[in-house]
Amino acid sequence: MNFQKKKLKNGITVLHEQRDLPVVAVSITNPFGGACEESEIKGIAHVIEHLLFTGTKTRTHEDISREIEKKGGILNAFTAQQVTSFWFKLPSEHIFAGLDILTDMLNNPAFPKEKFEKEKKVILEEIKMYHDNPRMSIMEQIEKNLYDKPFGELIIGSKETVSAIDRDFLMKYFKKMYNPKNFIVTLVGKADFKKVCDYLEKNFHPSDGTPEIKPIKKLNKETTEARPGIDQAHLVFAVHAPKASHPDYPALEVLDAYLADGMSSKLFLEIREKRGLAYAVKSDIETEKDYSHYTIYVGTTKQAIPEVKKLILEGFEDVKNMTEKDLEEAKERVIGLNRISKEESVNVMSELMFAELTTKAEDYYTQEKKINAVDLEQVKSLAKINSYSAAVIVPK
Questions:
Q1: Contact by Cβ (8 Å): 146, 153
Q2: Is 347 in contact with 339 (CB distance < 8 Å)?
């Protein structure tokens, strides 16, 4: 794999996987997200992400989006617990046009007054959208059941916290939390690494301030909400899990492939195919540098919730009967899915960034080796759960 990495004089870490196809995906990531916020300002990282798209000192919102899209590109961003990342994907010949946009957004945000309150209203509608969708809402609730405040509060914030954010405070907070010396710039595709590094050194200057993660306190809680206007019941079962940097993390991926990931997994076959209790049986590993949890979601009937929960617990217990053949099949699934994911440059862009945040970017290229090294006893040991959290939404 043609991979390069460099720490620039201004502190920026640059990661580049070179590809022959003349397309490039580029992200600029700041290690600041929901986990850095106090309860009183929950959602401010996400608000800043939105507002950086509303205009700079020389560009309007329309200019920002049009300059990328007229070249056939995609421009987007996301806020997670430990990062906020801004990215684009463009034909390679337009890479510096894309970098000009992100650089302007990060160096010269205007936070226009006329857009500030409007954008907060947009986010309040986003909050309502998540709440009104039971499947989204229950994933928010499970985090509250897994972690104490402020970490367990939503990245997007609440109606109260978002409404209370003041523009002047936000501008000062942005300057404190967005220090280029902490940035990770990731490129996947055809690009001139040296020219990009020279550009970044010329256009970004370090300042003061480094985001800090608030203490993460784990919980194990169960909640049930009776909600009017819905017909389906929703269950999420969750356990705290090894972080991505932990030696047991590859075993977690193998356990998931065997237990709940895909239509051939044990729980899918047991809950849906054998008993017809659900349409959707889905699993997910949610992890960043300092936290990790494993969730299993099932959409079912109100009456079946106790049985489904029992089947999930029995599924973990039954991992003790996993065979070497099962292990090899699960490993092959994980490796195969990882290879397929690597076809999309945006996926690799994000994975490299998170690997650098967690340990080092080079570890991304050792995934297969680590998966192949997982042994049966590792997986069986990981499946022995002593505590868990659950969230349920049922029709009222």
A1: no
A2: no
